[in-house]
Amino acid sequence: MSENQETGLAPQRAERRQRLIGIGLMCLAPIMFASLDAAGKTLARTGTDPLLTTFMRYAVNVALVTAFLNPVTRPGVARTRRLPLQILRSLLLFGSTGCNFLALQHLQLAETVTIQFTAPLVVALLAGPILGEWSSRMRLAAIAVGFLGVLVIVRPGADSFQPAMLYCFGNVGFYAAYVIVTRKLAAYDSSATTVFYTGLAGLTLMSPLLPWIWSAPTSVLAWTMLFAVGLFGTAGHWLIVLAHARAPANVLAPFLYTQLLWSVALGFLVFGDRPSVWTLAGAAIIVASGLVLLAEDAARWSRRRG
């Protein structure tokens, strides 16, 4: 290979490296979210109001973020080129969080997560017309197979449907839109700026309600979990922002499926929930679809290099 050819491949290698880093960050984010759900489920079992859990999710988030990212320590961090989008993104996350904590009052971790996994399919479909990140037929087919894996677990029908699942469907809509807006903002604002605005809308909306929803926890466990939901949520969404700054949304979306594995593990270890055969079968289908997507992306990059 000539020196000119080698030089021409350097940008592709750098972009490929950024994609792989983005995928790695996206694989870490579901661990944080599964831990957040486990903390929220624990709080529900202690009788904590889900609205209070939602408030603490944002209060801790804003406190942690402003401790490290603020106009004093990071001049210009609050300067955004798309303020309406930042506000919209924060509101969408607030809607997703509220629906999730309401669902966790009645459903197992695995149930809530599997319904949420329709979100990557929605993201992949919307990424084309909204972001111009069109998926290949192979990628769409693999994502569709992953969605079938979700259906295997949920097994929709009159006997298995619970009204609380409607909260999960609301979560799907809010979260899919949140991911799309996150990716769109990556072209205008830095990761630090986007993280700075993440929890502000939720805290602003919840603060006036605090006198009506506040009930001081009576146990160390409840206090710990209230802080944990904010900590895990902040870490997870920071990872998502960093990932979307390095790779397209349609590439990253399927790796959210790994949250199912962590949720099943935590559900068993923390709450004694044993996954059914249907859950294991659906999880296998979902993971297989994610591996197909990764292989398809690697093959495409090999062809470009060749």
UniProtKB/TrEMBL annotation:
Domain of life: Bacteria
Keywords, sorted A to Z: Membrane, Transmembrane, Transmembrane helix
Presence of the UniProt keyword Membrane in the record: yes
InterPro entries: EamA_dom (IPR000620), EmrE-like (IPR037185)
Residue ranges of the TM segments: 20-39, 51-69, 90-107, 113-131, 138-158, 164-182, 194-214, 220-240, 252-271, 277-295
EamA domain: residues covered: 21-154, 164-293
Name this polypeptide is given: Riboflavin transporter
Organism: Methylobacterium organophilum
